[in-house]
Amino acid sequence: MSGFSLPLTTIFFPPLCLSFMITHNKTIIYIYVTVHLIPHSHISHGWIHTVDDAEETVNEILNQMTSQLDLDPSRRFIWAEVWYLRRWFERQPGRIQDKVKRLVREGKLELVTGSLVEPDEALSSSYGFMDQMEQGRAWILSTFQLTPRVAWLIDSFGHSDATPDMYVKYGYSALVINRIHHRLKQRFKQGQHLEFIWQGLKPWSSEAIKSLPEKNALAPEGIFTHVLSTHYSAPDGFDFEKAGVRDVTAPRGRASRLVFLFFFFFLTFDWRVCCEKH
Predict the structure, then answer these.
(1) pTM, whole model, 2 decimals?
(2) Beta carbons within 8 Å of 169's beta carbon, 6+ residues apart
(3) What residues are labeled active site?
(4) Which residues fall within 8 angstroms of residue 45, CB to CB, at 6 or more apart?
(5) Which of 144, 91, 88 is nearest to 114 (CA)?
(6) How would residue 117 be classed by pLDDT, with cut points 50, 70 and 90?
(7) What domains are there in the chain, each with its CATH number?
């Protein structure tokens, strides 16, 4: 299961605001970039382990999250799947439940997607998708009095043309996805198209479809969509599950190294593409 056993004390950072200057065609251009680091745990509910076998590990993530978020006012965490969260939450004493509710109210713990599990989009039926979506969202609403507005779909293996319509139907304002074909992702990177308004197929009635010139007419609605640039793993040297990665004994030094990695990326990026587009 991806994202397990993260030492949370080392991964909570506020957004990094970077700025630098380049020269293009004798013109000085100032580049301002905000880097958002999103601490999260992605939980698979049926990959290598059964649901019950993995529960102990997931519970440890939730326990650590609850204790660590209060140690620094800048710390944030997001959680996407309701199945384990609900089982863990309902077994906690009242003081822990109250603490989790407070963290949610303060925005330190953000609940995204809100379905029981991250849905498969290849073989699941529309009934199965909606049933588990409505169960998870109903529990969040009754427990925390809120409704998630961002869908975090970073491990669904491909997406159907019904995806944007389904999430628009449920009132979501944004999607974060990841697993698209590597050639398409590379093309999006080169053209700076990793963010776009995604329009799906409008759910026309059979009578309306017959009146349309084309059956694949796009719905007028759309949803803001962001594609992860380099998978959902930690940056190189910060994946603490990988063999050979050192434990963090000097968090500030490790954080400085992460900032350096971002600077190195920006300095080696071909900004002419950006400049010529604008």
Answers:
(1) 0.74
(2) none
(3) 155
(4) 51, 54, 81, 83, 84, 117, 118
(5) 144
(6) confident
(7) 1-140+244-278 (3.20.110.10), 156-231 (no CATH)
